Amino acid sequence: MQSAPRTAAQGHRVRLEPRSDVLPSNGSGEVRLAALAEHDAHRIRALNTQIEQAIAIRQRNQSGQFSTSVKFSVNAGPGLYIIQLTLGTPPQTFPLIMDTGSQLIWMQCQPCQFCVSQNATLFSPSSSSSYATESCSSTACASLPRQCSQSNTCQYSYSYASQASTQGQLGTETLTLLSPEGSTSAFPGLVFGCGLNNHGEYGGAAGLVGMGQSSLSLPSQLSSVLGGKKFSYCLLSHATLPSSSSANPSSLVIGEPAAESASRMQFTPIVVNPAVVASLYYIDVLGFSVNNVRLNIAASTFSIQADGRGGIILDSGTTYTYLPSAAFSVIQQAFDTFVKLPRYSNHPYLPLCYSVQEGQETTAIPPFTVHLQGMDLAVPLDNYFTKVDEQGTYCLAIIPSSGGLQIIGNMLHQHYDVLYDLDNSRIGFLPEAC
């Protein structure tokens, strides 16, 4: 990507808006939390399906290693937050889903063979003087599942294994960024997919912004012009959405300013899953504590297995936390030991719930700590117990899973400034009010 003149402090800050199709603005807290659980289920199925496909292909390789001629992509179903990006000449702004579980930037384009409904005019490449197609021999084209047209234009195909997909041509375009002071900077050469045949549910968004670790993700492409390959976000509590989101929105920062609080952060390394080439952010979870008592759960419970299964990721696009049933049982037993409140056993998807009288929350529910490689994350109460109805039912925001990928969802790290420092392969956490 070509660079524009910049200062070391230049970066890009945008609002993160919750998807209206997943979080209805007029829904009660109970309705919103149920909708998020349904979204989680689709996303997790998509992730596990593609991981299993990648592992199966690897196992069929006689050497047991990846063939250098094979490319794998592991992509979740579309995420939960929408950002605004401005592309083209003349510039036009489009709502796009921000997704830490994906690598490609793409948007719907004219002439669209099949496009889903979106809350913006379709991007017209022919109307932009700065649009250009990528050739089949380009480095960007080689990094994606693709075909070559008769005119040597790179034709990409990208699937999310959740009945969502995009096919079209890979191109480059000028990205315009707005600084916090109101000035604009134009950056030519952003590589993105111009989707001409698209399927799925995107909540009115025009496409998707991959925030993964690949060379085509937004933080990777902007690294040379914004001072480094890094980004941070701070997410609002689901308990306050959507009423407070317009006044005090969640935010995303890309570039060097994302690390302005790094000196005050705790860090844990990004872990590589050697069996699956992915954009996912694996982290090393060592265990948990309830009421400052370390639980007897083997650290290997959360480790990546030799075949690539297992492991645990940090994911902005999943709401709840998902752990193996055996680990969940130990956590549940620990809370039952310390919490002297009536159990509520009729919740449809959250197994551990208590009936709490108003004002009892902070005294009756003990502290909870996530032990990560290099740091301990003592999360606030709202991050691990959530109020699910108006009768005072509070439930642990952790769901047991029968196998597959484990996930630290966004509820567990809400109200933290979370820094994805890809330059140093680490993730930082700092408690913030967002």
CATH superfamily of the largest domain: Acid Proteases
The end-to-end distance, rounded to whole angstroms, is 31 Å
Radius of gyration: 22 Å
Number of strands: 28
Can you tell me the CATH architecture of the largest domain?
A: Beta Barrel
Query: Structural class, from helix and strand content?
Result: alpha+beta
The biggest beta sheet is recorded as:
6 strands, mixed, barrel
Q: How confident is the prediction overall: mean pLDDT?
A: 85
CATH class of the largest domain: Mainly Beta
Tell me about this structure.
With 434 residues, the protein is an alpha+beta fold. The protein has two domains: 12-259, Cathepsin D, subunit A, domain 1; 262-431, Cathepsin D, subunit A, domain 1 (Beta Barrel), CATH 2.40.70. It is built from six helices and 28 strands. A six-stranded mixed barrel has the order 2-3-10-4-9-8. It has a four-stranded antiparallel sheet with strand order 16-15-21-22. Strand 19 and strand 20 form a beta hairpin. The longest helix is centred in the first third of the chain and has 32 residues, at 29-60. The protein is globular. The two termini are 31 Å apart. The model is unreliable at 3-9 and 64-74 (pLDDT under 50).
